[in-house]
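Question (not urgent): is this output format expected?
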Amino acid sequence: MSPDAPKQSHWCNVAYWEHRTRVGRLYTVYEHSVSIFYDLPQGTGFCLGQLNLEHRSSTVQRTRGKIGYGILLSKEPDGVWAYNRSEHPIFVNSPTLDVPNSRTLVVRKVMPGYSIKVFDYERSCLLRHTTEADLLDGPYDPNSVRISFAKGWGPCYSRQFITSCPCWLEILLNNHR
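Got this back:
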């Protein structure tokens, strides 16, 4: 590739977390889709099983074992989709899944074999102009999606915050940055 050739820009970065600790570096995604899996030979993608962390709790170890085939994240013309390829549910929170100007956190449960549009580009543009700053508790990223493997969080769960979940992803979208 010549130095004058345009560089392909990434559409997202993926961070893997265990409770409150980020494990490994950000994984930058250039292709239109990416597999995020645990330890199984799934071709190319982000293999969470290769990320090392000393002193991993038994809860995290059990949950990591449930990730299996994991998810496929796909950038489509209408937004970003997550396909649950695991044998266990995933739980998703995104600004475009939330009820606008509401203090309630919406976390969607996605069963194995199902998919969900985790980020809607059109809705995101509308939300950027309607979000009230007084309703936000702490830092807020309107271009971030959070996905937990096997464990839910929020008002309907014993875990109130995603940082209480053993294994989760933060998808940092590059579409409006």
